[in-house]
Amino acid sequence: MKYDKVTKTLPKYVDKSVIIEMLDKAKQHKMRNYIMLLILWKTGIRASELVDLRKIDIKQDVIEIRQGKGKKDRVVPLADDLNNILALYVDNISKNDLLFTIKRRQVQNIVHKYQPEGFNVHPHTLRHSFAVYCLKNGLNVRTLQKILGHSNLSTTAVYLDLVAKDVKEDFKKVVW
Question: What's the pTM value of the predicted model, to 2 decimals?
Fold first, then answer.
């Protein structure tokens, strides 16, 4: 989803509670799907990067994205819980094997399968949600740029508009 500078269309994202609901459903249904959703949510990587992940790309505390969008490499930090889950998951996978033998379209189907009723969640929605969540919780926009693999800071700065919008909406709830 591109940021349209003319109409100022902001990326769509969902709150953490929606993602937690999706993760809970997936965890009860199929552990592989749960891990895929967890990776998308807690790393902000693209669906295309997820399907290309190999065991060799999973390091202590980071995922190395090789030849991501624009053929760029980058390092994405891992939260401790995800790091531990991945360590267990990749234990029986050979070094150069893919983590998940699926296609990008299947990732979209998995995300749709667990989306709550009334929501239209795509893999990229999880990426946008990751970015907004990180900024709301104090992550530096420059650090977020590096994690997401954006060449230009202005691409990442779009999420600042979303965070500012939420601040205004939250402030309206204050009763004076």
Answer: 0.85
